[in-house]
# Entry
Amino acid sequence: MGYHWEFYVVWKHFDMLLSGLIVSLELTGVSVGLALIFGFLFAIFRLSRNFVLSKLTAAYIEFFRCTPVLVQVVWVFYVLPMILGIRISSFVCGVLALTLNLTAFYAEAYRSGIQAVAKDQIEVGIALGLSSAQRTRYIVLPQAVRMIIPVLVTMAVGTFQQSSLVSTVAIADLMYQGRLLSFQTYRPLEILTTVAMIYLIIAFPITQLVRVVEVRLAKKIER
Amino acid sequence: MAYKFSFDVIWGNLDVFMAGLVTTFQIVGISVVLGLTLGIIVAIFRLSRNFVLSKLTAAYIEFFRCTPVLVQLVWVFYCLPIILGVELSGFISCIIALTLYAGAVYAEAFRSGIQAVAKDQIEAGIALGLSSAQRTRYIVLPQAVRAVIPVLLSNSVSLFKESSLVSTVGVSDLMYRSRVLSTVACRPIEILTTTAVIYFIIAFPITLITRAIEIRLAKKIER
Amino acid sequence: MEKTRDDCFVKIINLHKYFGNLHVLRGVNLNIKHRERVIVIGNSGGGKSTLLRCVMGLEEIDEGKIYVENKPYIVSNMGKKKRITMSKEIQLRVGMVFQAFNLFPHLTIIQNLMLAPVKVRKMLKKEAFEKSRTLLKRVDLEDKMNEYPSRLSGGQKQRAAIARALVMEPEIMLFDEVTSALDPELVKEVLDAMKELASEGMTMIVVTHEMSFAMDVGERIIFIDGGEIVEEGGPEVIFSNPKKERTKQFLSLVLNR
# Structure
């Protein structure tokens, strides 16, 4: 193997990669923010006694969880504007696709968290005279959210990884810049390895942090 | 803007969808089988007392779980041939990349399955005089595998979805052929929607089966 | 009741065990004769189970020695470099039954019994099968032979666990609170199985809360508290005339229910 590694290329064009990274982070950040809110809403809808609302949201959730993210990204990018008859900027398409996807997963996470809060807890609330809304707000939600934070963070990291897919519809994220740069400099090895490392350096510490938190939470509950 | 839906283009091109699906199944099938084998071996190494082995496999697992699958695919496609000095077809590189990814994901599943086998069971094995290897083979693994089947199934469904990414390096799977077709036939709405639906009707039933198995297993253990 | 031979079978010398900073066993010395039936009683956390687990080799001894027929079984020296040696051969002569039964859920009862003889003693399957079946007959579980553990009652599971341990022909049987997890009406069948084993001359160390069993079957009662043997003696002595204050306190709590 006589490959001559030249990381100089990476340093020379690092600003390109950096601007791509910023786009990736922006996409992820906005999507996560929106999904946190909508995911919660949809979870409530899913759990509502209204049959239609419950089934509709269930269908939405299942659909976005059982289809590839790439298909969703491409669909939002090419099909949605045509159906709606309007022009949508690339960035918005990216955010839209990622948000629709993550919302479905978050909705499930919220739902399982809410359902996991022990029935006993709710019964105490009833016995004490709290209304349904009060019980949800003061008893169920605080416990549910505490439980699912690790899952929410893990899924957010997942969305960060999946944001790389927007590169396939020419959104200038980290992956897009990486591929562009590899072609321009004929040095895919150094560039793509660096791109992988950048994703890793961001994702790994967060993943480890989540594990530590999970262990701590498990100990707390055991006691 | 009124869009006239015309699903003739779908019926007229069923063979294209089928061909794509066949390639997808081939890729996923091979990756799942190879990935499971790799996963068990990696999990056992990960749990071994050998420090080097344990840490090396941990690094492998973390790397493939903390980087986007797209990056992994593209890297293997462009960079591996350079490193190895051989030409790799798109099909082969995708299988290599997906197998490595699947191996990491399955390894984590096996690892937690193995660690979940109650300490008591192992102690009973010690008391009966079974060696460590015998305990692993006859007591731990059978129980771990049984417990881990739902997770393996859902991981496999994920792999099926991720396989759509091979379209980005020109491998003629379902997604690739749909994108080509939608450009050629100028009917992205019908074609891409149908593609999404195809992925869905394969992934969703398996997901339901997985949930049913999970519930059955939970009941069995509770007894 | 059989006459016990006077030579020492198992010798435990100065056994120390720490769990972190907790000194759980503080220099336990115990000599057990062939065919002797030793019952260990005491408060929770006093070290009874730990003692048994050390003898089985499930816990690493921090200091002390265990000899079987004057040959070293487990030897540990606490020093800068802790060194422990354990004879696997001798370990095979020890069998144990656990509070949680620990039957293998993925194997039928007969398979549970056959696993160790086939894999460890390299017995032929046919031979192992016959042996296992005979033992299941002895504990009255022959009809459950092809069932999975989940289909058995607690008492049946524990009897199966006893049979499983016996297939390996141990010379010393350790029973760790084997009836504590059972509903009261199922306790008797297990104790009966143990009594039968005792009458056949098995050397046993039994940790239990069942005082009537201790009085019936025990040859020597050992009261462990705070990691030490506080008092030991025959059942007539210990139960009716304990000498130490701690023994009296424990017995009053346990017997006056």
